[in-house]
Amino acid sequence: MYKRRKPYDLSYTHFVGSWAWLLHRLSGLALIFYLCLHVWVIHTLTLGPESFNRLMAFLTSPLFRILEAGLWGVILYHAFNGVRVIVVDFFGGSLSHKKLFLVLIAVAFLLWAAGSAVIIGHIH
Amino acid sequence: MKESIIVKILRYQPEKDQKPHWQTYRLDVPADSTILDILNEIHWNHDGTLAYRRSCRSAICGSCAMKVNGQNVLACETPMHKFRGNRLKIEPLPGFPIIKDLVVDMDGFFDKLQRVKPYMVVDKPIPDKEFLQSPEEFSRIRESAYCILCGACTSSCPSLWANENYLGPAALLKAYRFIFDSRDDGTDERLDIINDRNGLWRCHTIFNCMEACPKHIDITGCISRLKNRVVDNSL
Q1: CATH code of the domain containing A50
Q2: Does residue A95 fall inside a structural domain?
Q3: Which residue of A71, B37, B107, B167 lies most exposed, with the fewest beta carbons within 10 A?
């Protein structure tokens, strides 16, 4: 008997559901990473106003504004797909999960575009 | 009309192979062949050493589930034209140990099924004649009773790939079939079994099971209704 040890079968076809789940996991990891970074940035307050201001000047650079727009997208995806999962699990949405994904992601995309325009607008 | 196709099959022969390897076959087969027709053609006319399970060839016995071009299907009901191009890549069901070639070990799958008590548990006196239920009561379990236990769903589930202790969609569906049966009295017992980190709550609504199910059962919907039942009971 041959026991295959693959934690994830990458060659298995991805459908809407598995893409949604995979991206949900990845966006969750990205949010945990952001949270750690955020706590670290806040901690510089304890080192005095100068070090905090120096860091903030760095974090408001154009590169970080673009990353911020990315973060906004990650938050929106995680939140809206989270709503989809709740609807599927507790409001009987299993048969319409693909349509639900399409609609929620479309709304998330519009919010992302609007929010990103504001964020990018802050680049001087 | 015949068509030329290239079929790659993941072979594993325990008496000589350390691990599985791909073997390629070039064949001319009728254009309306199913995956099972192709395997039969190979087995009967090209390479008698190829091992695979088959029986009814009518999508009822559930023997011939396998992974074809990246998704779990029943070989007997799947025409080769479901897949574009003239190349097929056939593998045993993922997540299960391979006994030989396309034959996988289903013992773990059936052990999990046994755990949810896949039979009627009745405390009340059984009627002399028919054990009736209304059409409405039956309609709640009709779809879940269509399961042919082919394993395509459980084997397609990423939660199972990551954790072999997960009960899997087929066992949970079987639990649903009896928990929502109006005649059954084993609900609390079964809910206790499936209300577990390796049971109900390891379903992350990935929907691979529903994509794979040859009977098109709303498996995720049934699992969700079980989740609701557990939550309702604990409130």
Answers
A1: 1.20.1300.10
A2: yes
A3: B107
B61: domain CATH number is 3.10.20.30
The partner residue sitting opposite B221, judged by closest CB among A7, A8, A92, is A92
Total tally of structural domains belonging to chain B: 2
Across the interface, whether the CB atoms of B14 and A16 are under 8 A apart is answered: no
A12 vs B70, B224, B231: nearest CB: B70
Q: CB–CB of A88 and B211 under 8 A?
A: no
Instruction: Give which of A1, A6, A12, A13 to mutate to test B binding, by max B Cβ within 10 Å.
Output: A12
> Are residues B192 and B205 located together in one domain of the fold?
yes
Which residues from B are below 8 Å from A11, CB to CB? 70
Is the model's pTM score more than 0.80? yes
Is residue B226 located within the same domain as residue B147?
yes
Of A2, A7, A95, the CB nearest to B162: A7
Decide if B99 contacts B154 (C-beta within 8 A).
Answer: no
Let me know: does B116 contact B172? Beta carbons within 8 Å: yes
- The reply to whether A9 touches chain B by the CB within 8 Å rule is yes
State mean pLDDT over B215-227. Answer: 97
Please write the tens of the pLDDT for every residue from B69-105: 999 999 999 999 999 889 999 999 999 999 999 999 9
In a domain, A89, yes or no: yes
Write the DSSP string, B166-187: S--HHHHHHHHHHHT-TT---H
Tell me which of B86, B104, B122 is where a domain ends: B104
Same domain membership, residue B64 and residue B122? no
Q: β-strand B71-74 against B87-91: which pairing, if any? A: unpaired
Q: How confident is the model over A22-44, as a mean pLDDT?
A: 95
Q: Please indicate, yes or no, if residue A10 is contained in any of the structural domains.
A: no
**Most B CBs within 10 Å, among A1, A99, A100, to test the B interface:** A1
Question: In whole angstroms, what separates CA B51 from the centre of its chain?
Answer: 19
Q: Is A74 a domain residue?
A: yes
CB-based contact (8 Å) between A6 and chain B? yes
- Euclidean distance between the first and final Cα of chain B, in Å? 63
Question: Crossing angle of helices A62-90/A97-121, nearest 10°?
Answer: 160
